[in-house]
Write a structure and sequence with these properties.
Radius of gyration: 21 Å
Low-confidence stretches: none
Strand content: under 5%
Largest sheet: none
Shape: elongated
Mean pLDDT: 83
Order of helices and strands: HHHHHHHHHHH
Helix content: 55-70%
CATH architecture of the largest domain: Orthogonal Bundle
Distance between the termini: 72 Å
Structural class: mainly alpha
CATH class of the largest domain: Mainly Alpha
Number of helices: 11
Length: about 210
Amino acid sequence: MQTATPVPRKATRPRADALRNRERIVTAAREMFVEFGPDVPLDEIARRAGVGNATVYRNFPDRDALVREVVCSVMDRTTAAAERALAQTGDAFEALERFVHTAADERISALCPMVQSTFDKHHPDLEASRERTEQLVGAIMDRAKAAGQLRSDVDVGDLMLAVAQLSRPPAGTGCHIADRFVHRHLQLFLDGLRAPARSVLPGTALTMEDLRQA
């Protein structure tokens, strides 16, 4: 007597509506974290996303998980923008500009400080996203330096710190008038990065490791 060979079951994929709900939650959370800070009530996020509280908790068991997803998604989108710019033009400085302006539009400077204050900054998902961002920006900067486009006395830490300072106000301040001038001031900063350098910078180039140890 022969026994039937079990048919392997296909892995269950999330339903399309479930994926849409998750994306709506992340989008609403990003908007409200920027407007009010990381302590905004989750039921308010659910209301803006147009879903029930149970849907929020089904996707994100706690606030830390939601904040982490928001920060990672923002970092992933900014690096993807830089990758697309580099692939489309091959111009490393143009890709660097695309990264900086996209990071400002995503309000990455308002979101990233949450990592320091609300949850484990060494979570694998967060570290993977951060490392991808740092590696890509570092590679673009190295390529721009090799092409003679970028001054040689700056590093990734210099860029990220300046972007954070120039594209604030921090989350929850309500000072949106500064948004009108963000891209103007970022472009002034970017023009100052172009080679040949017009001045000698004090101190030494700032790495991301320098920032983490500060």
